[in-house]
Amino acid sequence: MTSTVATESTPDSRSEDARLERELTDTWRLCRGFAGWFCETNHTVIARRMLVTAFVFFALGGVEALLMRLELARPDNHFIGPDRYDQLFTVHGSTMMFLFAVPVMQAMGIYLVPLMVGARTVAFPRLNAYAYYTYLIGGVFLYVSLFTDTGPDTGWFSYVPLSGPQFSPGKRVDVWSQVVTFTELSALSTAANLIVTTLKLRAPGMALNRMPLFVWAELVTSFMVIFAMPAVMLATMCLALDRLVGTHFFNSAVGGDPLLWQHLFWFFGHPEVYIIFLPALGMVSSIVVTFSRRPVVGYLPMVLSLVATAFLGFGLWVHHMFATGLAELGQGFFTAASIMIAIPSGVQIFCWIATLWSGRLVLATPLWFVFGFVAIFVVGGLSGVMVASVPIDLQVHDTFFVVAHLHYVLIGGAVFPLLGGIHYWFPKLTGRMLDERLGKAGFVLTFTGFNLTFFPMHLLGLHGMPRRIYTYRAATGFGPLNLLATVGAFVLLAGLLVVLTNVVRALLSGRDAGPDPWQSDTLEWSVASPPAPYVYEHLPCVAGRYPLWEGIRDCVVEGMDPRQRQVLVTAALDAAPDHVYVLPGPSIWPLLSAVATGVTFITMIFTPWAVPLGLALGTVCLVGWFWPRPPHEPLLAEQP
Amino acid sequence: MQASSRAAETLFIAATLGLLVFGCHRGPADAEPPTGRVVLIGGRLAPASGVEDGEWRKVAKDDANTRFSGLATITPGNVATLRVAWTFKTGIARGHEAAPLVVGSTMYVVTPFPNRVHAFDLKAPNGTPKWTYEAHPEARAQGVACCDVVNRGAAYDDGRVFFNTLDDHTIALDAATGRELWNTKLGEVARGETMTMAPLVVKGRVLVGNSGGELGVRGWLTALDARTGEIAWRAYSTGPDADVLIGAAFKPYYAGDRGVDLGVHSWPPERWKIGGGTVWGFVSYDPELDLLYYGTANPGPWNNEQRVGDNKWTSGIFARRPADGSAVWFYQWSPHDLYDYDGVNESVLADADTPNGPRKLLFHADRNGYLYVLDRANGQVLSATQFGHVTTSRGVDLTTGRLNYVAEKQPHVGQTVHDICPGSPGAKDWQPMAFSPKTALLYIPHNNLCQDEEGMQANYIAGTPFVGEAIKMRPGPGGNRGVFSAWDPLGAREVWHIDEDLPVWSGALVTGSNLVFYGTMDGTFKAVDAKTGALLWHAELDSGVVGQPITYRGPDGKQYVAVFSGVGGWAGAVVPAKLDVTDPTAALGFVNAMRDLPQRTRAGGTLYVFTLP
Amino acid sequence: MRAPSLLLLALLSAAGCRRERRSFSEPSPLQARVERAEPLPSGEPLSHFLDNAWAVSEGARLFGWYNCAGCHSLGGGGGMGPPLRDGAWRYGGAPADVHRSIVEGRPNGMPAFGPRIPDYQTWQLVAYVLSLSGRLRLDVEPGRPEAIAIGKPPVMVSKKLPSAEPLPEAP
Predict the structure, then answer these.
(1) Is the confidence at residue B310, as pLDDT, over 60?
(2) Which stretches within B151-261 are classed as H helix?
């Protein structure tokens, strides 16, 4: 035991504090210069980069969506043409799912989880940097391919045999499968990081039943990632082998099975929805608690709902495959499971409503987004219950009804809470306040635009408009509703531009936020905005679920050496202090390893020699990564 | 007479044994003899025709298709000393499937494309050529010949030699001089038609049929006037009754074959026009009943999903009157054929003296793996027994006459069906069997091949293949690709068999001294004992043997045996056409089973004549 | 803001790279027929067919569709027609020779497909036929088909296309 937990604030002098701050700043100093840019491993920096990158991809995905809406705005339109259109919807879907939704939620987790649990940083800072660079390279690769007209064109779930070697010639699908494989590698790394951070780096006293709901959500999500992502990585690897080496995993003619692809993909694909959705629920919980000014109603049911959703989420992937011809029993089982998942979601919705109902509401912009979320998500949930039943699913399968449903669930369930979360945590990230009037205007526009865009798609789907068609005849009568949806898309764009303007304005000339502008309950609001690289001068300790409302400042951890990158490792369940662990500093090797990974995966598209090449490169990088650090002075030597 | 009574004795014992075996073998449901089965046991067999003249005037020796010669100078005792008398190189390196003809002291052979006819004077030593006729067929005909550019032989009648050319001409030559007497064009290469079969001449009618079942050709049998070459009649294998020459005389034994215009109604609309049913096998003739017998080939395309229905009158057998071609009866071996089981295999005619009275029988070893015994007077199936490994069907229902297909083995588009046995070449393809009245056994050269197959959409473009199946063949159970067996048709059992590594693609010949001759695709020509199958003699020829061996008595009184070597045909095309053995689907999938053949033999074309020293 | 702008710049520069073109609005068969006098009616240089995985893949489809596979077999191993994957050519293996073989036919049984196949499809067929003997770039060759397995040709012959005749270029 190298640290002690003091229950009283120590009567140290001001100079003592200043020395501590100086030493911490020195130890945790960010890298400088051009080279330093590539070495940095600080979690706030990496998380910020990840957020910005994710939003850039969000913007790119949005542009693709707008191009598609323009193409569909009127009948017999040949603005884009079928080939580009196929690439656009595939890259749009893949971007939003793989390059935006998952990374952005993980970025929020990487940024906020250490702050919320009272840790200086994440458990594996270098792994964190590696995950970011891998993701970045994957994303850039996808867009390079799109810009070179080699963008994947088989839809974001790339069903075989369409995506197999015969029907998708060239390198388009190879690009897709490699991008998926290595962005998922990034997601897996981040998930492992978040799990260890949550379970082992919590502030003393923050037992599992005192963790903020957002941290719970990230924890559960990370476990889901670890169980779901390998399935899709396996699938994409098999696809790559089928395409590049000529294996027959999915070739039914020689005993392969195309349905295997669908099973593997949706075993990942359905949990994926919850991987995106659960962190958003965590954000909603944070916002609801803060702006209701009261503890959440039903903490335990909320946590159990998160866990239940995670479990159930793995048991209903087959409802994406109702049209493949299932046995009756299978249909019944997966219909039941699909309808059942509405229960935990419903529990949470009612808990929030109860919290809001009984709280003293502060109607700030984040809360508006939460209201928007509830409204949209309920509609999306209802259409979800509809398509969970086999007869309706068979009728609307592969129509715009499904497109409407999935956007209601994903935008309603994830993007609105995320925007709320951005408005909520923006002061913490930047130290500036967003403008409330612009924020509310942004909400109104996005909410209106969203519903204008996607509600008509329900009707289009019911009228029989198939998804993924690049144009349609005037005689189909799809024209007016499509035009409405396109207009809606531009309203949505206007709303998002208002949000962006608000952000840019705040960055340039926003009001100073101070550490805790919202009078919130969780630990991240106890440190400066934006937080110092070491985050906590004194590691806090916690005695309840709402530390800031319960007087955290009276309890800190003593005895950590500020001259080393020390973190306090605590027990997984009750967060009792266990030992101090010294983290490695900045390093170029995560970036080099990510580059090696990228080179390997990209070369693999062209030659199997990539495997030995990658093995060699990987060996070099890992040796560099794990090269022994210079020995640290023993911690106790300096102590009196 | 003594010989024949001994034969009857042997037969009786064999038949009794057969009965015992059959009794033991009687399994569940499918082995139960259906009602209507005619007991033939104890019957006496004799060929329907034939008095030994020492000649070989027809490709099958006689109208009954026996390939039996009563010559007995070469015996099991002295065959070991058999040696080459003379050879003749044709200069053509393609599949030589033809049987030579020997009429008087002249031998006539017809070569594969470009279809030369050579006459040899047997009185002069070493096969001195007498005359040669060049048919000059169109070169483009080679592109529509499904299974190598073969020709299966000529016909002789009344001082004329008749043969078919690949580009659909039937030509009559003066046998003495080789002068062309008439030349009748019967089909269109541009539509995919070719002619490869050996004509049969019956009552002044030259009977010829067309090939091209893989190209959407509509099959027919045509009778030409032997004197003038004019078409006397043409009987199509598909289409309205008028085209098929079905009239009042038509009395098929089974109800499923009765009806009006079945050749139209058992097809999707208009499909009968490109429906196959070509006639490229051997024709038999029974002078007593005055009936012709010939088989019709597979329906087109192979992809069965594009031709729902029974696809009459393909993959079946017709009995017709030679005078006007009118059909008397029909039986379909493989209704709605699924696997390219052509029904063209030759029918051997024989009479049985059974306890229930004399029966006129017809033996036919079909591609579908069954050896059929039919009453040739009315087309009734008396028995149908598997003579090879069959997974595609479970027996023949003798009450309805229908083959019971195995549903799981039905090919579908976009789906691979594995272990289809026999494969498309069937348990036995065109390679003709021989029948010896002395042993009362059939000598069957056949295949042991299975295949995996996947259906695909077939598009009809005239003059191009119309198939729609991707196929990979491989050896059947046991790993041997061919079998030569002796079969007791009345006992419905195998008497002996020889496993051959390669498919036995040559014809068989049996002699009065109980010798059986056949060749293998690696170039070995063999003589075995007709009773035991013991190998008595063999010779290595310069190329694989896919021809039909014959025997004759030369002007010098010695017995000769002649056969073509020259590997080719569907099974052997991989050698002369230099197909790429790395593509398993080459030659409609046959190459996958014959990858080693190019190492085992080489292309060639030589006529070998053997005799005793 | 440096990161995203660098990213965008990098992406935009990628737009200048060579593209794999896929044209879905091919000339109608009739139009192609009228224009057949031109070496390449679609006005595209030959490399757009030979270096284009899409064209080769379309060629593979057409190879079955127009019954080429019936004679030359699905994998080009031959049957009624000669093999196409052994690198031996009776009538020349230059793209223009293969094109002429398809359009005009050859005397020993190759029918003339000129009246049946629009010219751009003929070039796609040429591209596929050349790929059978391993004559196209590795990344352009078709992968395995979704059908019964057909092996690749065992010996990769020279990747250089024979240029017995000058390649027709776009006018």
Answers:
(1) yes
(2) 241-244
